[in-house]
Structures are given as C-alpha cells and as structure tokens.
User: Fold this.
Amino acid sequence: MNKSLITQNPEDIDALNRLGLAYTILGKLKEAKSTYQKVIRIDPLNPIALRNLKKIKEKKFSSTAKLSNSSINNKFLEEPGKTKVVELVNIAQPKIVESLRTGQSLELSIKRLKIFALEGAQYIGVLPDDIARRLIKFMKNGCKYEAYVKSATQHKVTVFIKEVKKSTRYKDQPSFTSITDSPLVLEKSEKIKNHVEDHEEKEEEEDYVEEEVRE
Assistant:
C-alpha cells in the first residue's frame, strides 16, 4: 500500500516512513535505511527518519529484525468461525497509530458495552458494535481471544482476532460468522437460538449497565 502511495507521490513522507518501518520489521535493514535516507533528502529534520536511522546504525533493531515473514504469517492463519479480520472504529490519533507494527499484540477490554483494543494502557480503537455485542456474550462466559495488528495507516487499523478458548456453554456456536454467509441464511440458522437466549442476553446487558453505574 505504501509503495503504491509513493508511486503516486514520491515525496509522501508519511508513506516513506511507514515503508521504512515495514522493511525494518521484516529484517530488510538495507532497504529500510535507504527508505529513511529518502525521507531525509526531502525533509532533513524529519524526527522519525532521523531516530530510526540512528537505531539502525546502532543495531537497536537487531532483535526485531529476526522476525521473519513466516513468523508473522503464522499469526494470521485463518480458521472459519474462530478467526476474523476486523477494522477498528474511532481509532487513536495518527501519531499513535503509526507506531503500531504488524503482528503486535493488542488487549481486548470490555467497557461500557463495547470492546476496546489497547496496547498496554494506550487506547487504539474500538471493535464495531455488531462484532462486540457477539464477543461480549462469549467473553463474559469464559471464552478467550487474542488480537494482533494486521495493518495500520494514519486513518485505518485492522486487527486479526483469534479464538484461543471456547467455554462449554458455547462450544457449538462459532465465535465469528463468515462474511460470505447470506444474512437471510444466518438469520434463519440462529433464529431459534436467539429466541431462547434473548431474555438471557437482556439480563446480561442489565448487569453491564449496573456495573457501569457502580463504577
């Protein structure tokens, strides 16, 4: 994506810096150095390029450089019903988003009937309401999930969410539905289950609201 942006505008500093970081993560330090040097030629005082060139020179990226394509790709192995690529909404400021790297782990935290994606204590974004509503039900009943950054640009962050533990209660229900499934098919297939669980979910929502009031 960044290469495409640079083709359209060879002096796109933000795209060049992101490309430099991508090369660094993949261990292609020679290409990363060359990319950052292009930034310096355009903007001699650019702090991001200057800082990262210094790190490359001092070999502070050596541990990161060992991250191979295969190790990154292994995190993103898709499994129907158990994994999903999601675009976050209401994402953080560009300077925060730009510091994210592919494969970076994020924490999923339930708050105010939403699921927040966090990097440590730093807010990154929120899962879409439809996905959050489904996962909150699972998470509140013992299911566990991991989330990793799949891609990040100034105005868009996509994450890869993976089911790592399923509670007995929901063992027969997929965490995620396929995007290729017809809405009508999904509606019919889950109509009975939703009818049975409707009252239960309402009680759970009331519990969440009461919890927020206490906080």
Summary: The first helix runs from residue 2 to 8. The beta strands are 83-87, 105-111, 114-119, 122-126, 144-153, 156-165. Confidence is low (pLDDT under 50) at residues 62-68, 179-189, 207-214. The longest strand covers residues 144-153.
